[in-house]
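Problem: given the chain below (406 residues), write out its structure.
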Amino acid sequence: MDSLITAAARALAGGDPLGALNRVALRDDAPALALRGIAMAQLGDFARASALVRRAARAFGAKEPVARARCIVAEAEIALASRNLGWPTKALDVARVTLEARGDRVNAAHARYLESRRALLIGRVDEADGALATLDVASLPPALMAACQLVAAGIAMHRVRASDARAALSHARDAARAAGIPALIAEVESASITLDSPVARLLARDKELSLRLDDVEALLVSRALIVDACRNVARHAGTVASFATRPVLFALVRAMAQAWPADVSRETLIAGVFRTKHPDESHRARLRVEMGRLRDLLRPLADVQATKCGFVLIPRDTDEVVVLARPIDEVHATLLAFLADGEAWSSSALALALGASQRSVQRGLESLSAAGKVQSFGGGRARRWIAPALPGFATTLLLTTPLPGD
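Solution.
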């Protein structure tokens, strides 16, 4: 490898893309194309970066499998940065196997890190943890070690383990400083701010409190009956009742939990749950049916009793009932959470991350756009959506993924 390629590679490793381009911008050989692509990715031009890396992979060809595999790993990282979550993951897996077989341990570890990062981004926390567990993180170069520790912190946050997240971020901060890359250091600091931001609200007895991750972790191990509006479940002492496919029943139990220990009138429940201002006997009959179903579902956790004017929630083995709600009241809060990471998302990538249909995601985006909460640019398949950060809140809405045992 010639001196200019070596110098450009060192500049990229140190987070200096302009320095790298000064050395290889006018060259079209395969190593230069690869380095130019990585430099353009660091500068944020992902489309150009991806095209350059693909050209480099073709130029290396089958006679240089290691170099070609490295290009595939670089293209996968560009795809993740540009939120192209539909990028073919099998190609990355084949590249990782090639790198491992040829003794390129660091780039093979980088490929595994990308697998873990993608899994975390689309909410597959167990899969992300499994991929990361195969790596000896302590033996990796500082920059890659910091990136892996950021993923470990993200996994801990999604599992509501604040102390584990803080430990991972501490390791990430030390590694980022050792690497000396300003962008990486800033990413770690941003994650630390997220960890100290409110991730949920506690609603109980006409009071509302903002909760950080530490507070939520403590609440989940308390003796309270928790109606979790972040995951649509009710939980107490390890027992969980899921309302994932029962939105009407969950709306009823949430209304009673927020009013507890008082009851909720039938008129209030009908108006709030059935969305009508003029209830009739058919609505009252439906309410009785739904309350019967709710009693059956809540039986291990609580009872639902009729009162003179409505219904009241009677918890078992506890004298505290609380509602755990998302930090903002917004129908499309999860969409906003993904968009608020500062990256430009396609509707197809959002659909994959949310596990929803692309059409439902498009309707949500159109609704948010009409309200001025998100913006789009481009057209057709190139259309991308962005949103400003949510001030004062954790932008990932960490409580949207199921907890172990849910």
